[in-house]
Amino acid sequence: MKAPVNPPLSKERMVAVSAQWRRFVAGMPVDEAIMRPVILQSWQRCRQAGFRADTLALCPIDAAGLARSIAENQELVDTAKQVMDRLAHSIHLSSSVVTLVDVSGLVLHVSATREDLENVPYGAPGRRCDETTLGTNGMGVCLVERRPVHVIASEHYSASLHYLSCSAAPVHDSAGRFLGAINLAISTENFHQHTLGLVEAAAHAIEEHLRLRSLARTQRIILELLDDGVIVLAGDGTITSINRQACAMLGLSADATGKNIRTFIRASDVFKSILADGKTFHDREVIFGLRHGERSCALSCAPFADGGVILTLRETRRMRKYAARVAGAKAVYTFDNIVGESKALREAIRLARVASQGEATTLLLGESGTGKELFAQAIHNAGNRSKGPFVVVNCGALPRNLVQSELFGYVAGAFSGALKEGSPGKFELADGGTIFLDEIGEMPLEAQVSLLRLLQESEVTRLGGQEAKRINVRIIAATNKDLPTAVRNNAFRGDLYYRLNVLSIQIPPLRHREDDVLLLTRVFMDKFKRSLCKPELEVTREAMAALAAHHWPGNVRELENCIERLVNVACDGRIDIADLPQDVMADMVRGRQPLPGEAAMSLKRIQKALILETLRETGGNFRRTSTLLNISRTTLYAKLKQYGITADSFRAS
């Protein structure tokens, strides 16, 4: 018959165990029905280690080891102290000592009176209480078994400890990692069967505190990682928790916790109403009066049970930046994406680079399809606002009755159908970045008045509102209209035109960039071959020449659409002159009506384009060029002189 795990404590049992201890140290067999296996196994380990049962030599205090272990287990020590002190206080009349040890058995902390500690000398911080140092004892056995255990009187292996009884329980962290043990040593006459339960409860309390500390630490880390400011307020406005982002937004120091929020914010009626109402709301725009100015932010509130609230603060400018991104307002093109070598285009790029290094309002002039938005994005990305929003407004596409609200926003209830919380306009969304006003010539006169005021004051007032908001926006406008003529016809405000026309850039049409047509054609061919998975595709010289000779009224946009169509319909890996669109073919066959200031398309123009393309193909080799064109070299020289073509440039490339 095996001994029960927790046998009842009685005088008879204590006498029986004492007798078995004497038999064991004398080398005689013991009655396993009396001895608990956990104690007998510990005795056997002590005997194998050569531990003496008649004397007990205390190890010296390891001050250096104690300092290292406390540093490694600081959170455990800080947490266990409170629980241990309460446990020792609750049984202070019982000559008890509560001890905390690490996994090696080193005593980290003791809760006891000086008199009680003298009764248990091995419990001083810095001493070791493992099984190899003290023999069978509560802490030593617990460290081996890693489960709750008590050692009563003569169950101790050393006779010097038979006057004590110990109860020990292991302590784990929130991840289940074994940290050490807590032990209660008490005079045997004061020991009670339920003492182990008290120690287990204390160990559980320590573990729970450690779990809560870990949870609080994790929550704190999460709060600090948030891009939003978070403030937790008690019912009276006291700050119980605040993260670093909220401190930065409100200009508070890290020691703001424990102070009332009203001491930092002027005219804090907003907090008074928030705490009084206790209602949930989201992203309400609020302007806080701080000690060093004002701060506009979007405020959200979530009350909790004891009358306090959790506040979330988001920077208005950052929210608008995100809103602009969600709306697709992002500049992706740079000057590297502008393809062309013509003199007129190079001059436009030079001026655009100059514009990108300043803040001057820029006006882009050019026909539809010349790439005005491409230039606007390149200017934005090359400047110091590249990390800010890039908002595009097509003034010609806005409904006339919604222009004001779209550009400048509106307040709650400004008009029928308005959102109840109001809405920011495009200029507010572009705050800190660039707004591109495309087709500015189509803007209604009433909206031009508001735009002029914004340019002069750098302020925007929402439709239906009274409060002007400061904004910092760089304006790039574009038009394909003749604005000076529109000013003379009273279709565009002259004062606004002069404000916009600080730096104007003329983007040339494609018909004035004759040599760039072939370069752009190759770029678009490569682009669409990749996207349509057509790696092998040849364009004949005649087709290239016809593309170069076409006048392209839709400019680069038309050319790109044409190449996409050709790549889609191409058969047998070849694009010939017969595959070209009808309008390009018509130019070749019958010529066309000239545009203002432009001569009609002629066979000479087609001939020049064909010679240029052949020279590119042959790398400037006259013999091969004349052979492919089926003309003599003398005729080729004459044509080169006639058209002002230099073959050396093709050889160099």
First-last Cα distance: 102 Å
Indicate the low-confidence ranges by residue numbers.
Answer: 1-5, 590-601
The CATH class of the largest domain, by name, is Alpha Beta
Query: With helices defined by DSSP (H or I, 4 residues minimum), what is the helix count?
Result: 26
How much helicity do the residues have? 40-55%
Provide the CATH superfamily of the largest domain: GAF domain
Q: From the alpha-carbon coordinates, what is the Rg to the nearest angstrom?
A: 44 Å
Strand percentage: 15-25%
**What structural category characterises the helix and strand content?**
alpha/beta
**Annotated CATH architecture of the largest domain:** 2-Layer Sandwich
Assembly level? single chain
The coarse silhouette is elongated
| Widest beta sheet: strand line-up | 7-6-11-10-9-8
Number-wise, the strands total 20
How many separate domains make up the residues? 4
CATH topology of the largest domain: Beta-Lactamase
**Strand count, sense and closure of the main sheet?**
6 strands, antiparallel
Mean pLDDT: 83
